[in-house]
TrEMBL record:
Coiled coil: none annotated. PROSITE patterns: AMP_BINDING. It holds the Pfam family AMP-binding_C_3. This is Long-chain fatty acid--CoA ligase. InterPro entries: AMP-binding, AMP-binding_CS, AMP-dep_synth/lig_dom, ANL_N_sf. GO terms for molecular function: long-chain fatty acid-CoA ligase activity. Keywords: Fatty acid metabolism, Ligase, Lipid metabolism. Residues 18-418 form the AMP-dependent synthetase/ligase domain.
Length: 593
């Protein structure tokens, strides 16, 4: 039996226990191409041999940047790690300036990219990167070497003994990867994670995932450069889950129907979009069908786990599942039995309705610095509570600091930030990692996140406001796609709102209003008044000092490319505030009148 201590032990464990014909599956053109467990390992070994022949040494760093998740990424990952080099995964959507910073800071000697667009970005800063020896591409890109050249360089197996010798010498405490946090402010920090950090997190998380080993399928589409998806992919390898890679976020719904997965990982923003699409389809129904659809939704919104609502509710739920929810499940491939959600808080109503529809969302919590999982819900053994991120993993100690901050310790806590002792010492102190999040542990041992420590602000009246709580509540409105609450040091909370432009247009056409551009929508008084109604209703859940008193509608769709969101779809608060400074001034000037 392979004892898993280093990340490259996972594929060998899979070979011994669940030798899969379709370990990793990527779509090229209109064909899904399968790579077996044996082929995965053989190609990773060829890649290792090729890297050694290129002169790559232990502790060299290799940056890997891919616009989509794909088999090649994983072959490179194992090939890099098992010769003691470090994989530096980088987001595909950052600026040239950030690429220059990360490749310089990490001292990466080689860079492997996926496509022409990324090649152009790296080439634009290559002159400023003295450590960078060469760029290789997965796709055929004119003027760029192809990654297959490294595999071909390793086709001769005569140096496999050298690969094996280095591999055997690597300990679990050695650095495996440097992951640059996308961050909502400032320069990215290089989080150093050892083999032990990530392996321990995978094995502790494995206890919480209801897989029968070796007969399930997953669809992967969240960015692999983020530790959340990467850790999950090692978990799939551990459990012998066949992993299919979606072509892109836009094609996820098509790919779900094609591959019919049992499990996907998601972020709340994606779940909100899926739910909104389902509701939009229900709204198109007429008569009794429409009544029945929304009756089932109402039943779903009352859902409590473990039959807590009693017999009559369970009977209604059985009918709702039979008549309505079964169709939702069919629309999501028919086999989807589990969604794991992280990165930000999920609205409790979504957790309820998806669980009622027998597609439960298991919400978890963690950070890049914690490899990442600290706590996660588990449907079994009473381990699922809506509105929480589950119980801390066995092996991770969590305590709440005097100021409410979540502190933790365990084998999954990072080694530190690369070349930044000052920032490392700020977060690793008194034997605990300081998360920067505020939370509570309830009487049943469930962890609940209430806000980011840095994001809670004080109004000029000295009242504290937790923006995420307000934002999550407001996004229940179908008119509101994104919202950012502002008001630090001001006399009242206010907000920037990016409406759901498609939904607003549908609403307008029903009202006989003609709305053209997004700017017209943002400027339209009737749209503003209608959103005001939504906010007035939702404000009632909050104390007077927390309520959103004023808002402005923004004409842009907030996105990663537009700079308003991080790659894991969190708000870049500082960037949004700067972008809409004129609206900010308008809100607080108007309120002074």
């Amino acid at each position: 039996m392979t004892t898993i201590k280093r990340l490259f032990d996972f594929p060998y464990h899979q070979l011994q226990n669940h030798n899969l014909p379709d370990a990793l599956v990527t779509k090229y053109g209109d064909k899904w191409i399968k790579t077996s467990t044996q082929e995965y390992i053989d190609k990773a070994n060829a890649f290792s041999r090729g890297l050694l022949r290129l002169g790559v040494k232990k502790n060299d760093r290799i940056a890997v940047i891919s616009s989509n998740n794909r088999t090649e990424w994983h072959i490179c990952d194992i090939g890099i790690l098992q010769i003691g080099a470090q994989n530096v995964p980088v987001y595909p959507t950052i600026s040239e300036e950030d690429y220059e910073f990360i490749l310089t800071h990490s001292e990466s000697t080689y860079c492997i990219i996926s496509d022409e667009e990324l090649y152009k970005k790296i080439m634009s800063v290559k002159g400023n990167l003295p450590n960078l020896k060469e760029i290789y591409s997965f796709n055929q890109v004119s003027g760029c070497k192809n990654w297959s050249e490294i595999i071909e360089l390793g086709a001769d197996t005569s140096n496999q003994a050298e690969v094996d010798s280095i591999k055997d010498s690597i300990t679990e405490d050695e650095l495996a990867t440097v992951i640059y946090t996308s961050g909502t402010t400032g320069r990215p920090k290089g989080v150093m994670l050892s083999h032990k950090n990530i392996v321990s997190d995978v094995l502790m998380s494995a206890e919480r995932v209801p897989f029968e080993a070796g007969n399930k399928k997953a669809l992967s589409f969240l960015p692999i450069c983020h530790i959340y998806e990467r850790m999950i992919l090692y978990l799939y390898q551990y459990y012998g889950v066949s992993t299919y890679f979606a072509e892109s976020i836009e094609k996820v719904s098509d790919n779900i129907k094609e591959t019919q997965p049992f499990v996907i990982t998601a972020v709340p923003r994606l779940l909100e979009k899926v739910y909104d699409k389902i509701i939009a389809k229900g709204s198109e129904l007429t008569g009794i069908k429409k009544k029945l659809f929304f009756w089932a939704v109402d039943v779903g919104l009352e859902y409590e786990p473990y039959g807590a609502n009693g017999g009559w509710y369970e009977f209604k739920l059985w009918i709702a599942r039979k008549l309505i929810f079964s169709k939702w499940k069919a629309g999501l491939g028919g086999n989807l039995g589990l969604m794991v959600s992280g990165s930000a808080a999920i609205q409790p109503r979504l957790a309820r309705v998806f669980a009622a529809a027998e597609i439960p969302v298991m919400e978890g919590y963690g950070l890049t610095e914690t490899s990442p999982v600290i706590a996660v819900n588990d449907q079994r053994n009473g381990g699922f509570k809506i509105g929480t991120v589950g119980k801390p993993l066995n092996g991770v100690e969590v305590k709440i600091g005097e100021d409410g901050e979540i502190l933790c310790k365990g084998p999954n806590i990072m080694m530190g930030y690369l070349n930044d002792k000052e920032k490392t010492d700020e977060v690793l102190k008194d034997g605990y990692f300081h998360t920067g999040d505020i939370g509570i542990i309830d009487s049943d041992g469930f962890l609940k996140i209430t806000d980011r420590k840095k994001e809670i602000f004080k109004t000029s009246g000295g009242k504290y406001v937790a923006p995420q709580l307000l934002e999550n509540a407001m996004k229940q409105s179908r008119f509101i796609e994104q919202i950012m609450v502002i008001g630090d040091g001001e006399k009242m909370p206010a907000a920037f709102i990016q409406p759901d432009f498609d939904f607003v247009k549908q609403w307008a056409s029903r009202k006989g209003l003609t709305l053209g551009s997004n700017q017209e929508i943002a400027d339209n008084k009737e749209v503003h008044d209608r959103i005001q109604e939504e906010i007035d209703g939702l404000n009632k859940k909050f104390g007077h000092w927390e309520q959103i008193k004023q808002f402005e509608i923004t004409p842009d769709v907030w996105s990663v490319d537009g700079g308003e969101m991080t790659p894991t779809l969190k708000l870049k608060r500082k960037a949004i505030k700067e972008k809409y400074q004129a609206l900010y001034v308008k809100i607080y000037k108007d309120s002074d009148k």
